[in-house]
Predict the structure.
Amino acid sequence: MRRHRKVKILATLGPASSEEEQIEALHKAGADLFRINMSHASHDLMRTLTKRIRNVEARCGRPIGILCDLQGPKLRVGKFLDGKVELEVGQTFTLDDRDEPGNEKRVFLPHPEILQSVQPGHRLLIDDGKLQLRAEKCDGRSIECTVIAGTGISDRKGVSLPDTLLGVGALTEKDRADLDAVLETGDADWVALSFVQRPDDLAEVRKIARGQVGLMSKIEKPQAIERIEEIIEMSDALMVARGDLGVEMPLETVPGLQKKLIRLCRAAGKPVVVATQMLESMITSPVPTRAEVSDVATAVFEGADAVMLSAESAAGDYPVEAVSTMASIARTIEREQLYPQILYAQRPQPEATGADAISLAAREIAETLKLTAMVCYTASGTTGLRAARERPNVPILALSPVVKTARRLSVVWGLHCVVADEPTDLESMVDGACRIVVDEEIGKPGDRIIISAGVPLGTPGATNMLRIAYIGMDGRSGV
């Protein structure tokens, strides 16, 4: 099941796609990895979905990645005496620590960290920004605000704080329990962390996970943008969570931020996923809007590693069609004449490391000699990541003896991952690469490929060798 596209597709599972047959249909339609949203999934459901994904993987014979998305802090106001109230622009409205039903003058805010952190002049956005407040007086127990936009507020609506750095960490008690359950299965490949504000937010998750899963930071807070280089360095991957980012920042700034984050991640050699409302209309429609097609195309042109479906595949009426549509858009864009030119213009400079020098040389040799494929042996995944960072115009075959590495790399641009035995010597390395290129229908006897690996073989992070090989006429060996 080789994909004839470079960008990967991350599909969210939910009520519309939780059965094993549906998961298999989504995979065959183009989903390369699956997201389990821990905001809605119990531990039992998470374990059930994980098992079903692995059953599909066994039948299809291709590594499938699993991302478990932690909920993060959910900041909400309390309840109102009549369920909701109507406010007027310019009036005073207070959020306080009194656990009593609210009215048109005040409401309970069950988050002391907000009451203690907000300063005069800070904005508070309620219900995805439908109600906007400005803090006027703050005493640690209440925030007296002026209504600056919107008029309605009802029970348990969410609170966003674009101007406030909260002292609370990104990992809640629920998240810790969810993370423990995810790690206990041993089958998750990625964990997505919500509400990241600072690099320190990632430290606790790293300490708990101990390398068992990759850590994907969801960028949805303005505070994260201010320290984005440090956050990228501490993360294994990034998700551009455009929904929440568009609530806390002006909507018109989000496209530019998306481009910036993609390019920073490409420069760092870290996978980046573009998420939220990519094919939103396909929740209820079998076809997308023209604007949505352009949105997906923009992410592909930019060289994003993956594009994500949320409610489209989790709860929509057309989950398989949404995945098929996204795959079709990606394939078409990658055949456009401008596509390689745009990727080339945005290609980052290599870092001063042996791995980057080898990856750069492999791409240049492959493109200059018009080789059939680049093959990289990668136990830890580092060699595969550096090869993908170059965004070559030839297929990349990532061979790993570690199944968890192959699954984790399923989110990375351009990598076709295969679980293969560790070669014992250079001859078996070349023969194995040539045989798998033919078996995966990437090349044929007589074609030339380039192989990168580390010598001594099996040494993680020691990519230091390139080898050009002809595929033998038997298709099982190399010369």
Q: What stands out?
A: The two ends are 27 Å apart (CA to CA).
